[in-house]
Amino acid sequence: MQIGWNRNWGTLTATRTYWKRGWELFWQPGQRVHNTLLFFRMGWEKLIEQRFIRRRSKNRWLAHQLIFWGCVIAIAITFPLTFGWLRFESDFTNPSDYLIVLFGQRLEFFTFPARSVLGWLIMHGLNIAAVLCLAGISLVLGRRIKDEADITTQRFDNDILPLVLLFAVCVTGMMLTVSNMFMEGKFYY
Fold first, then answer.
1. Which of 6, 46, 58, 81 has the smallest count of CB within 10 Å of its CB?
2. Percent of the chain beyond pLDDT 90?
3. Are the CB atoms for 10 and 16 separated by under 8 Å?
4. Cα separation of 129 and 131, whole Å?
5. Comparing 5-14, 77-86, 102-111, which segment has the lowest mean pLDDT?
6. pLDDT score for 16
7. Cα 186–188–189 angle (5° rounding)?
8. Cβ neighbours of residue 79 under 8 Å, at least 6 residues apart?
């Protein structure tokens, strides 16, 4: 049976059964604490450490970690700024300092000098994320060009195109900073 793209996976009988039974087992009396701890341990090992990739190759693991953390940092910065959950304002008492406004509340206790290391890291967080991604992309592309096993199995749409798109996002994002800082914002629009 072929499943169309418009079908919801939860409406399939087998999937719904696995989903329901999985939660029943997870919340089983006497196992709740153990299962919750196991959930967090597995989340740490599979998402944060990504041991399953490190076992295959340290180089592959490093490339994956660089791309993963670059994307996570970029998302953690972009979403709050885009949705207006987070913004920066000048401190009234000291205009060379910034303070964070989180969900419309001024965090007066957390100010930082705009021209400090912390200020630079905060204001260039997306560039740092882009550099991490670009380093990971270069490692992946290097392996894909040199490794004969990868060359024979790779497809442009699944293996190369996502890297090209991620590269384009990183470079164009960094060009906004270049335009603003070095070209006086001439091409910033």
1. 6
2. 35
3. yes
4. 5
5. 5-14
6. 84
7. 110
8. 85
181: buried, middle or exposed (CB in 10 Å: 19+, 13-18, 0-12)? exposed
- Residue identified by tokens 């996502």 is 162
CA separation for the pair 115, 97 (Å, rounded): 8
Burial 21-51 (b: 16+ CB within 10 A, else e): eeeeeeeeeeeeeeeeeeeeeeeeeeeeeee
**Burial class of residue 145 in the structure, from the number of CB atoms within 10 Å of its CB (0-12 exposed, 13-18 middle, 19+ buried):** exposed
pTM: 0.75
CA neighbor of 13 nearest in space, from 29, 27, 1? 1
Distance linking the first and last C-alpha atoms of the chain: 50
Kindly report the average pLDDT of the chain as a whole number: 86
The enclosing H or E element of 40 equals helix 32-43
What CA–CA distances, in Å, run from 142 to 24, 61, 94, 147, 151? 46, 14, 48, 8, 11
Going by C-alpha positions, the residue among 119, 117, 101 that lies closest to residue 109 is 101
